[in-house]
Design brief:
The structure holds two protein chains of two kinds. Chain A is an alpha+beta fold. Chain A contains seven helices and 18 strands. Chain A has a domain at 111-322: Thrombin, subunit H. The chains are: A alpha+beta, B mainly alpha. The interface between A and B is large, with 106 and 60 residues.
Chain lengths: 324, 88
């Protein structure tokens, strides 16, 4: 055999080994090709231009009041937000959804989604928290703190949500919960671990209709960057507040902390008891997105309010709630 | 070089190809073979009729409801790397 031929000839064992590896590789590519394609193509954005041929007058005439009302909300689609590497926070799966304005166009939207959550504990004592009506498929989801729906080893009772509460007045009435939900991470949490202190109430329609039809549903976002301005709201009832009016802490940047077995966020805010579960919004242009809630305080950081970081667990809870 | 030695020795091209395949396999395995553990959600269905629950909450009861305490936590540690603010 000439020297040239011998150099490119593989020994039989190596040849077989390479064939096997090649085969495995091909099977792998066939199985995961679609995933890989999505993975790669997501990094290259293509802009396609589509000229509209329809006469503008015809388009405007198409949109009668009835067809506008009957139109499906395209914002139900979840849009991927840009990813920002940050500490232990994984923003690669960040997502957000725009809010759903109320049917009557209440001018106070999106703050019309904020309200008080009343409940009784197993001993029959009455308590109050805060909460937010969230844009959802069933139009009936209220976001709040986990400790406002499940506390001391039991689900709370007599839960109602009263949006736009002010001095005993509730312009659209209140909605009673038909289901309560919380992640196992909260229910089985070790003592003093609030990093997944999420809770949601799914409310039955009241005599005026579905919750978010009346007061709107707040947009939401999760797996977001933390050092951006937050806008917190709630009904603090502990001194010096009396719980009769909505209070706010607006525009301070968030700071992330390790707490328990996860991440939490803080902002400067002096709201007191009763504000638990009240929303933290982030803003992008004119859009507001729920991205936290009043949850706990710390003597290590006086004058600050903390929220669990809204991550995949929050989304899993929300998704379950909107399908309940 | 003995016949035995030549049998187990791979040529350079084969070695590079094997390393390449091994690398691709490792990267893909790391990315796809560890799916996040599914999040468990607990649900509690309320047995009381919503009308009865709404009736329970009189104006007096609402006004006298105690504020749920904000838990006070001391187990906190600053994240080392502060995240960047996303562009608006």
């Amino acid at each position: 055999m000439p020297r040239q031929q011998r150099r490119i000839q593989l020994p039989p064992v190596s040849t077989m080994f390479l064939w096997v590896l090649g085969g495995v590789y091909l099977v792998y590519l066939m199985a995961l090709g679609n995933v890989l394609y999505t993975w790669v193509s997501a990094r290259t954005e293509t802009i396609i231009e589509h000229p509209v041929n329809t006469n503008p007058d015809v388009v405007v005439k198409h949109w009668t009041v009835a067809s506008m009302r009957a139109a499906t909300d395209a914002d139900q689609q979840i849009g991927n937000a840009p990813a920002f590497p940050q500490g232990s926070i994984d923003t690669s799966k960040a997502a957000q959804q725009q809010g759903q304005p109320p049917r009557n166009g209440d001018p106070s939207y999106p703050l019309s989604t904020v309200g008080k959550v009343f409940f009784s504990n197993n001993a029959g004592q009455d308590f109050v928290c805060s909460g937010t009506a969230v844009a959802s498929l069933n139009q009936s989801v209220v976001d709040t703190a986990g400790h406002c729906v499940y506390w001391n080893g039991g689900w709370v009772q007599n839960v109602i949500f009263c949006p736009l509460y002010e001095n005993g007045n509730t312009p659209y009435g209140c909605w009673a919960a038909r289901d309560l939900e919380a992640p196992s991470d909260w229910i089985d949490a070790k003592p003093n671990d609030y990093h997944h202190d999420f809770g949601m109430a799914i409310v039955a329609p009241n005599n005026q209709g579905l919750l978010t039809d009346l007061v709107g549903g707040a947009g939401w976002a999760y797996n977001q960057a933390v050092n951006q301005p937050f806008y917190a709201y709630g009904y603090p009832a502990g001194h010096p507040f009396d719980g009769q009016t909505r209070q706010s802490c607006e525009g301070s940047l968030g700071t992330s902390w390790q707490h328990g077995s996860g991440t939490v966020v803080s902002i400067p805010c002096n709201m007191t008891g009763g504000s638990s579960g009240g929303p933290w919004f982030i803003k992008s242009g004119d859009n507001w997105y729920l991205n936290g809630h009043n949850d706990f305080i710390s003597s290590l950081q006086p004058g600050h309010m903390f929220s669990p970081y809204y991550d995949d667990t929050w989304y899993a809870l929300y998704d379950k709630a909107q399908h309940t | 070089m003995s016949r035995q030695q030549r049998l187990i020795q791979l040529p350079l091209v084969g070695t590079i190809l094997l390393c390449l395949l091994g690398g691709i396999y490792l990267v893909a395995w790391k990315r796809f073979s560890k799916p996040d553990a599914p999040v468990k959600i607990r649900k509690h269905s309320v047995k009381t009729r919503s009308e009865d629950t709404l009736k329970y909450w009189t104006a007096d009861k609402m006004r006298n409801a105690k504020p749920a305490n904000l838990p006070n936590v001391t187990d906190l540690k600053r994240e080392k790397q502060q995240p960047r603010r996303p562009p608006v």
